[in-house]
Amino acid sequence: MAACALGTLVQQALKAAVDRPRPIWQDPVDSAPYAAFPSGHAMTATVVCGLLLWLLHRFDAGRALRRTAVALAVVSVAGVGLTRVWPGVHWPSDVVGGWLLGALLVAPAVLVYERGGAARRCHRF
């Protein structure tokens, strides 16, 4: 939960700092009012899927379930990215930036949990 909240703050701060205009198409499928970089949809999909995959690994879900989850996560995260570029609301680099920022939020969240006391407290129940 904290990683998702932090992600929203980072994403909004970067949008304000970079203030990159969105693509302008003659006949767009969709539009959006705020700055383009980074793609919040791509970043959120990466954070949520990344944390879910980590939880499946952490709680030793079966191999078939983990493989299925990885495939679904890849399709989901890639699909979200494509659905931001295809209608013309983001540049491809906005989506790639969102994916990278999402991964940069998941990695420290997992490390903090694993190295902190939260992991030990969780196993008491």
Automatic annotation (TrEMBL):
Domain (Phosphatidic acid phosphatase type 2/haloperoxidase): residue spans on this chain: 1-110
Keywords (A to Z) from UniProt: Membrane, Transmembrane, Transmembrane helix
Stored Pfam families: PAP2
InterPro entries: PAP2/HPO, PAP2/HPO_sf
Regions crossing the membrane: 39-57, 69-89, 95-113
Presence of the UniProt keyword rRNA-binding in the record: no
Keyword Transmembrane helix: yes
PANTHER family associated with the record: AT30094P, SPHINGOSINE-1-PHOSPHATE PHOSPHOHYDROLASE
Name of the molecule in the record: Phosphatidic acid phosphatase type 2/haloperoxidase domain-containing protein
